[in-house]
Specification:
Helix content: 40-55%
Largest sheet: 9 strands, mixed
Order of helices and strands: HHHHEHHHEHEHEEHEHHHEEE
Strand content: 5-15%
Radius of gyration: 20 Å
Number of strands: 9
Length: 378
Amino acid sequence: MSAPRVHPMMPVSSHDELAEQMFVTALKGYVFSEIDPAVREAIDSTVNDLDDSQPPLRDVRREMEKKPVYQNWISMQRAAQELMWQAAGDCVDRQENGLEELAAGAPELGSVTTDPDFEVPEYLAAMDTHMMPGSYYVDPTGHDVRQGALFDKAASLYSLGRQGGQLNEMRGHTVISHLFEKYPDVEPERLLEMGCTVGHSLGGVARYFPNTEIHGIDVGASLLRYAHARAAHMGANIHFSQQNAECTNFEDNYFDVVFSSAVLHETSAKGVKNIMAECHRVLRPGGVMIHLEVPWRETPEDYFGRLRGDYESRFNLEPFWHGACSADLRQLATAAGFKDVLVGYQDACNEAERGSTGHFGDVNKGVYRSWYLVSGRK
């Protein structure tokens, strides 16, 4: 299975834009490799100095807020995120007209359906998720692809190329690796991704199943127009539609596989329950649900992970981060009616292999090396 390293819809960086983007990626890399370990050490020291053997998170945060290393950590993460969106936006805006022309001239493959009366879920409408200006759903003209291009460009910067270069398909390959390993009997005739954004994961998934009817849904019309053009230029026959994953318009028992990729943590406690129930409704008996999530699982003793989640919730505008990373996804999937529910870590990969084993288990190998998954059969 071969794939292009880039695609025609990706905004092309000029010399100066590339320099700006490289600075952003270098800054993010520096925070990850140099500042994170120093903050972890400071947090451990702070916890040990407090009288309580398991102090409340608010007490640890209060003490950490006095330390320059923590102050710089928060400030640098926030600044890097703001700079990332600015750098991506400058690049997109310079060539927005050309991107719209490219989208209009995409091959006639798949489809895209938007809804001018669509109501964005409150947990997304309330803020600019990830600090993305306009978030996923802004669509000022009713015909453009700007938010999709912005997300695609920024996503390649955010992951520092660690999710499959500019295609960012790693999570899709990882989902299919789990499917091949744990559900090898499933050959989907129909497949759905909930919260597909610009089709990163679906682009990889589609190459495993060239004869499968493939659908992707999301809340943003601009995202979906871009996703459709992106997929069509890459030769992928995918149907995109603007829908809420909590309540879709698909028929009962329609799909063989339904999955999501790092979506649950951007919803709400009620939203996760509704999504699980909707997955069960639209899957045929014997069909498979897979939800891939960030590999962090909050535990009382992991104060670095909890304070990292605190940053995501308070400063990176992802208020359900704590909830998703501590939720009992096994119980939620079981309560929705799924059986033989699996919960654990799937090794990250950039190409899934049929017949491979030993890539799913209880060991978290780290960010971009593992993903947390819950799966089950209807």
